[in-house]
Amino acid sequence: MLSICIPVYNFDVRELISELTSQGIKLSTEFEIIVIDDASKHEFKIINQSVRKIPNVKYIELGENIGRSRIRNLIAEYSSYNYLLFIDCDSRVNNKNFIQNYIANFKNDAVIIGGVAYENESPGKDFLLRWNYGKNRETIAANERGKEPYNSFKTFNFCIPKQLFLNIKFDENLEEYGHEDTLFGYQLRKQKINIIHIENPLIHLGLEKNSEFIQKTEKSLENLFKIYLVYKQDPEFINSIRILRSYSKLRPFNRFLIKLFFKSFKSFIKYFMINWFPNVRLLDIYKIGYICCLK
């Protein structure tokens, strides 16, 4: 009945697979765990190859990296059962009823989103920006997520009927990093697919260093801007994304002024966030400045 789909890139998934297998065996339903490695470094492949020996696990390695959208579509093609539970590899299960909570909410016409959580203990200063962002922007209770169900869609931890997924799929034209989940959530909205938010989070473990997180944020903004150029005439799409909502309200002259300001102070703001003040509000300023510079 349930295919657990885990795309892997440069992360040790042994503990995650072990816990999911343990929970699955206790259920009265059939399940499988599909793990596809998207051309990780050699040391991670060696570590993760041991999960091949675990019952109910399919482990596959790709020779080249195909990206976040294509690999999720590929996993769905390998799946055998009628519900797909997508889990990011850099996560930890902290609930003994994690799988059962999803099964209890299965519907043939709905997507179920479990949410994300972060460790309460603050990490080292080099990781504070990513941790602060996660705690302040991504850790949202189910009842709050449910107020704007499509805006809170993330690929990190969600379950979807297989046939419904195959009818939509992730857009493989998005080859770079970032916002493939934004576009997928938009397609769910356009097709009026029901989204159920439940309190069933996974702990996000894969925190990037401050400098790496800023770099990934820049890449995701570039990808988002490509999407924006396609959908900028659709107010429903623009209003559903915070940064685009702010950007679209700016007049050309104001964008020009922000661009000048950002180019002058970009290095200083970046250095300040990395070394002294890893603040989410400052990151917001950086993001609007960065997107105003894109063409």
Overview of this protein structure:
- The chain has 295 residues and is α/β, with parallel strands linked by helices.
- It has 13 helices and ten strands.
- Strands 3-2-1-4-8-6-9 form a seven-stranded mixed sheet, with helices on both faces. A three-stranded mixed sheet has the order 5-10-7, covered by helices on one side.
- α9 (210-231) packs across α13 (280-292) and α12 packs across α13.
- The longest helix is centred in the C-terminal third of the chain and has 24 residues, at 252-275.
- It starts with a strand and ends with a helix.
- The mean pLDDT is 94.
Descriptors for this entry?
13 helices, 2 domains, alpha/beta, seven-stranded mixed beta sheet
Shape, principal axes of CA atoms: globular
Strand order of the largest sheet: 3-2-1-4-8-6-9
What about the largest sheet? 7 strands, mixed
Count of the separate structural domains: 2
Count of DSSP strands:
10
The CATH superfamily label of the largest domain reads Spore Coat Polysaccharide Biosynthesis Protein SpsA, Chain A
Helical proportion, percent range: 40-55%
The CATH C-level class name of the largest domain: Alpha Beta
Beta content? 5-15%
Count of discrete alpha- or pi-helical segments spanning 4 or more residues: 13
Quick overview:
The protein is 48% helix and 15% strand.
Secondary structure elements and their pairing?
Blueprint: E1 2-8, H1 14-25, E2 31-37, H2 42-48, E3 57-61, H3 68-78, E4 83-87, E5 91-92, H4 98-103, E6 110-113, E7 116-117, H5 128-138, H6 142-145, E8 157-161, H7 162-168, H8 180-190, E9 194-197, E10 202-204, H9 210-231, H10 235-239, H11 242-249, H12 252-275, H13 280-292
Parallel strand pairs: 1-2, 1-4, 2-3, 6-9, 7-10
Antiparallel strand pairs: 4-8, 5-10, 6-8
Helix pairs in contact: 9-13, 12-13
